[in-house]
Amino acid sequence: MFDYGLEDLFIVPAFLLILGYFFIFFIIATIIKNNSIVDIGWGLGFVIVAWTLFFIGDIYVNTIEKLIVNIMVSFWGLRLFYHILKRNAFQEEDFRYKKWREEWGKWVVPRAFLQIFMLQGFFMYIVGIGVFYINMIGTEINIILWLFIIGIVVWLIGYMFEVIGDKQLRDFISRKNKDKKLMTEGLWKYTRHPNYFGEAVLWWGVFVSVLAFNAPIIFVISPITITYLLRFVSGVPMLEKKMSQREGWDAYASKTNVFIPWFPKQ
């Protein structure tokens, strides 16, 4: 009576997987009283949901292309998971979550569930929507090869920006140069946030690759959302507020682009 393809039903398993995933993190966070563990689960969640949908769907349809997209997501997600896990594991609750815990008082548990875990699950669904969709495709698609290749190249550019930017920052911190409080070398000479810029770009690459499956153009909401979050919500603004207290920040900020790389202003 109804002729639905697997791709038309992707919303249900994707939604349930994400809901269950973040519910587990919520239970653990409530027990240990540390809501900041939600950050550890962000990248890993994309990987788990993408591969689960791949095996739920028809793995014999556009297998190679689906594998490539999932591998792209996995490289990003697992690296981010390891990066945050190594930094935050067994640490005290992050100052942002501590502040909310104090402000919310007796309502901390229900508000944490809705405003931290479920909200992050919502954003995971929006950002990953194209990836989740193609993994449930049940009919053979004629891939637009040139568009698929462009998507991979864009993803590579973004991924390298993120990886190199993070490595340069780690090396700077490990040197413990007390005379220099700010990282202003390498990619950081051209943008104040090369890692955030790289993350935004790689998701634009994923979106272009997804478009090659003739996916709905509305999935552009994915890279728009992650770019907006990084640039205006949880990424750049919070870090800039913290870094602005350091010596030399005003001079650095006045000549270095905030997000999109460009040559320093004279």
Give the secondary structure arrangement, pairings included:
Elements: H1 11-32, H2 38-56, H3 63-88, H4 95-104, H5 108-135, H6 145-175, H7 194-211, H8 221-233, H9 236-243, H10 249-255
Helix pairs in contact: 1-2, 1-5, 2-3, 2-5, 3-7, 5-7, 5-8, 6-7, 7-8
Provide a descriptive summary of the structure in words.
With 266 residues, this protein is mainly alpha-helical. It folds into 2 domains: 1-141, no CATH class; 143-266, no CATH class. It is 68% helix and 0% strand. The chain is built from 10 helices and no strands. It has helices at residues 11-32, 38-56, 63-88, 95-104, 108-135, 145-175, 194-211, 221-233, 236-243, 249-255. Helix 5 (108-135) crosses helix 7. The longest helix has 31 residues, at 145-175. The protein is globular, with a radius of gyration of 20 Å. The protein starts with 10 loop residues before the first helix and ends in an 11-residue tail after the last helix.
Provide a short characterization of the protein structure:
The protein is an all-alpha fold. Helices cover 68% and strands 0% of the residues.
Provide keyphrases for this structure.
2 domains, 266 residues, globular
Distance between the termini: 68 Å
Helix count equals: 10
Proportion in β-strands: under 5%
Order of helices and strands: HHHHHHHHHH
Label the overall shape. globular
Main sheet overview: none
Number of beta strands:
0
Helix content: 55-70%
**Spans with pLDDT under 50 lasting ≥5 residues?**
none
